[in-house]
Amino acid sequence: MGTIRLDDSDTRRRFPRRLKTLLAIVGPGLIVMVGDNDAGAFSTYSQAGQNYGTSLLWTLLLLVPVLYLNQEMVLRLGAVTGVGHARLILERFGRFWGAFSVIDLFLLNALTIVTEFIGISLGLDYLGIPRLPGVLVAALLVIASASTGSFRRFERVCLVLVAGSLLLVPIFLLAHPPLGRIATGFFIPGLPPHAPLSTVMLLVIGIVGTTVAPWQLFFQQSYVIDKRITPRFIGYEKVDLWIGIVIVVVGAGAMISFTAAAFAGHPEAGNFTDALGVAEGLGRHVVPIAGVLFAIALIDASIIGAAAVGLATSYALGDVLGLKHSLHRKPKEAKGFYAVFGALLLVSAAIVLIPGSPLGLITTGVQTLAGVLLPSAAVFLLLLCNDREVLGPWVNGPKLNACTSAVVAVLVLLSIVLTASVLFPDISGPTIVLILEAGAGITVGIGVVAVIVRLRRPRDETRPAECIERTTWRMPPLALLRRPRLSIGRRVGLGVLRGYLLLAMILVVVRIFQLAVAH
Predict the structure, then answer these.
(1) Which of 9, 14, 299, 423 is least buried, going by the fewest C-beta atoms within 10 A?
(2) Is residue 136 within 8 Å of 142, Cβ to Cβ?
(3) Closest to 374 measured CA to CA, from 212, 163, 151
(4) Against a cut of 0.85, is the pTM above it?
(5) How far is CA 108 from CA 61, 100, 350, in A?
């Protein structure tokens, strides 16, 4: 929605000028956040509202700092370094972690895109549109919008889809959910009464997993680079991110609230099936147009989710394999980049159209693998944002590190609980609580040790001369950077993380394979 000249050095003191700049910058934060409210999110939030009313709305507010901390760090990395997330991991932590980050991202994203086309197919079914041509047309439209060689054209298409996500607001108004109950659900934490603790906890973890996903980190960092945003405009990009977060929370809260209001007192309450069942229930218990709007919003969210997740994968592979990867390039100028993007979407669409495909297992696998892999992505994000060779004066401060470390610890605990629940489906609520309590105790102990070590470490008061002006500082070429020095504690931590990830992924894949064979 505008351009900024490369040599523009305007201070932008007046509001109209600042607003015009914001309109030109806006995009990465909006797209990554709205893309996160995808088909999986529609199912998870609708299940929370249909089964437990508004009692879990408070989880959305807890996710706000998690979303902001993660995405603020990657947008800072993108603007300051000009290098993609996967490439930074490869160059700073070695081939194993670089290959691991891309391989697991590729597998997880491929499955995620399948869930996006599941959402599209369910929306088409409700609208009475044949599934086969509808799914193929959706896939071709996404591929075509990204393959024009025009970054601005693709972003405009995405912003139209972002506007389409606001269709959830009129559904909320049509359902007339009680505002007092919504306010209570948002601001007074609690668990649904008379509900199994293990089931509720797993749904809470599902809400976290569907809202905070590894692909977001890779997508936003590369997209910020592709949009050519520099450190001078990081402040505007943070505003863009906050707008996206607000839209995500409003959309998620609307889905939980209007499903709670629509199904309360009806036989479907507490018996969630899928997004198609939600659309049918809204059309039956609210007004017919509510079901239609929900189906259209589901298709809209699934399309933008498929585009964002597909690009995250293509960007990451381009980083690691040295392929030309940019939406500014035409397909003949970046053949590998567009080939990966197109193949991912077409194969995912084909899987959904195969009769008898275990679509439910794929959805379960996506949520589980995302929960398993997210802690590793968060750990490397934190390490990169403390690497002075990479970020110079833009490195994290002590307070930000403390907050981010707490977030990482919570994500690790949730990952362990989620993995355990898949391997042991009959896990009890007290067992989950015991895991969380033990993990919290270990985390506090590690935190105390880290604080003591930091206080005893002598402060380095020297500052490189080139780090004085933040707005003009950019990372030097990667080949000129000194290799990072990993302390013994970090080496041990990364070794433990590597072992856990490999073991957890193998066990989860084996469990899903067993379920697929039984199916």
Answers:
(1) 9
(2) no
(3) 212
(4) yes
(5) 26, 12, 17
